[in-house]
Amino acid sequence: MEPRVLLPRLSLRKIACFVATADAGSVSAAAQRLGLSQAGLSEALSDLEKDLGINLFIRQKAKGVTITCAGQQILPEARQLVRQVEEFQALTRGSGTHLSGELTIGCFHTFLPILAPALLTEFTARHPNVKVRFVEDTQRNLEHSMLAGTIDMSILYDIDVGPDFERQHLYYSEAYVLLSPQHRLANSTDPVDLSLLVDDPYIQLDGLPGRNDHVFSTLGMKPQIAHRSTNFEMIRALVARNHGYAVLIQRPKHCCTYEGLPLVIRPIANPVPPIAAILGWPSNIHLPRRGRAFINFCLEFFKEKEHR
What we know:
5-stranded mixed beta sheet, 3 domains, alpha/beta, Arc Repressor Mutant, subunit A, about 300 residues, elongated, about 20% strand, 9 helices
């Protein structure tokens, strides 16, 4: 006699209601997003809590809902389950030939204006039924968001990335020195030895790994920080006004600031290893087909970019 197959008591519909409510922060907003009545959504949530034997939300009148610790623990898996079901439905509707659905890509803030527009344009031209959304944040916050399931994957620097992530190498970048034309080293065309700058005022791009700590730590140097900012263009503007120098990685095509002031870029003479840009995603998740398609697209995109 074959063993009985136990049918799951949980409803995918109820799980989708849970995810939507957690993302929206209120029953009314989630109901509107799902096209349900508030009463119907509330009933689905209550039924799911009874099935699981835990409270998923703290309900407060006029303040929406707050997800409980128990709800937070199961939310990433619930999101993953809903996405897998959506992909399964897309396969049956499209016979596996077309990609669809949403793809949320995290991006470290210095990458965003340089890479995201081109990636969005070219990827959606190939896959018009995939809705791509970019989220800008610090590298550490992006890692937390991926583990929480709110972001599918992220474009990051391969510096201090946690052990819970898969990586796909995209390209290498080399750090450089940014100077004002008035700086004493600006007229030289030779690579700059950072020991000649270590006592000068340094303008630091805050937000790991954008601070480029690895550049100075590799050389056993400590810069004299005069100004800090998390804004890439603010760093460039301060350098152009000759308030100090900066060490950056991302290199815009133009060598002037928003004000139109010129900047001078010089390579670094010291032996500083290049920095890898990667796509990262949690190792414990199943990437949807659209996610794997985005990885393959990025590999092709950056390979072509190297040869331009």
